[in-house]
Automatic annotation (TrEMBL):
Residues 97-281 form the NodB homology domain. The chain crosses the membrane at residues 9-31. This is Peptidoglycan/xylan/chitin deacetylase (PgdA/CDA1 family). The keyword Membrane applies. GO terms for molecular function: hydrolase activity, acting on carbon-nitrogen (but not peptide) bonds. The keyword Nucleotide-binding does not apply.
Length: 292
């Protein structure tokens, strides 16, 4: 009888122990779940807070850039009013009898030949290059810099619909092109030319974004239309426009392309410019840009 009672006590004690162990196990599960939930909530909270802080900082940076841009524009307008017309050319770094030859869409498999032609006339030029072409012809890209010419950026896609798609699409392509140029040559450039020219494609908000991001937008004042001529007709077109070019407040910027049919007849144009005592110079980032 005493043994049976002892067994009952053991069974009851075991049962109580099992219930306590089960409760403790359940309690641990609940505690772990709550802890995970709290950690998740904290992570989400921290991520949201970080996003808010990033957005706020980004807005503050944009505002500072805008203030800086407006201040520069204010100073520029004041200078334009105060400086006599005859001195404005020097103020804008537009030298008389100076021609700025620019080549778009390169580099290409013709660039080496183009550089040799320029070298023979001691001419300097500005090359607005496409990002995929720089990657395809890295040696030509380096040769442009080596020969003392100035690199510019012309974007990635050269597709009107894609390039001008949104407020940030222009900046995105130009920054990618800038990074590629830097990785290949070790130097950077803020000079840009948008595909097909800034007008009518580039919106005012896109232009503002370009300025706020430090890019300098350049168009041209003489369009050779060399892309459509096969037998050098572009040379006479440029000469004709140059003879009638009368503005002293605009630089002489000639639009050409890095293509075979342009290079074949380029000596004819360079010979004329040399004969007429024009200086063939490259652009620089200190010049006030001309755009449509």
């Amino acid at each position: 009888m005493m043994v049976r009672k002892h067994d009952e006590i053991i069974i009851k004690a075991f049962f109580i122990f099992f219930c306590l162990a089960t409760l403790l196990f359940i309690f641990n599960i609940i505690l772990v779940s709550k802890t995970k939930a709290m950690i998740t909530e904290d992570s989400v909270f921290n991520e949201v807070e970080l996003q808010k802080e990033y957005f706020q900082l980004d807005q503050e940076i944009r505002e500072l850039k805008k203030i800086n841009y407006e201040a520069k524009q204010s100073v520029k307008k004041k200078l334009d009013k105060e400086i006599p017309v005859e001195n404005k050319v020097n103020n804008k770094s537009y030298k008389q009898k100076t021609v700025y030859i620019t080549f778009d869409d390169g580099p290409s498999n013709n660039t080496d030949e183009l550089l040799e032609v320029l070298k023979s006339y001691q001419a300097k030029a500005t090359f607005f290059m496409l990002e995929p072409n720089m990657r395809k012809y890295p040696d030509a890209t380096k040769a442009i810099i080596r020969d003392g010419h100035v690199p510019g950026l012309h974007g990635v896609s050269h597709n009107k619909q894609k390039f001008y798609e949104s407020k940030n699409s222009v900046i995105s392509e130009m920054k990618q092109t800038q990074v590629t140029l830097k990785s290949i040559t070790g130097i950077s450039s803020n000079l840009i030319r948008t595909p097909y020219g800034s007008s009518p494609h580039l919106t005012s908000s896109q232009l503002d974004e370009c300025v706020l991001n430090g890019f300098i937008v350049w168009d041209w004042t003489i369009d050779s239309e060399d892309w459509k001529y096969k037998k050098g007709e572009y040379v006479q077109k440029v000469i004709h426009e140059l003879k009638s070019f009368s503005s002293i407040e605009k630089p002489v910027v000639i639009l050409l392309h890095d293509k075979k049919t342009t290079i074949d007849y380029l000596p004819n144009l360079l010979s004329y410019l040399d004969k007429e005592d024009y200086e063939l110079d490259a652009m620089n980032e200190q010049m006030n840009p001309y755009h449509f």
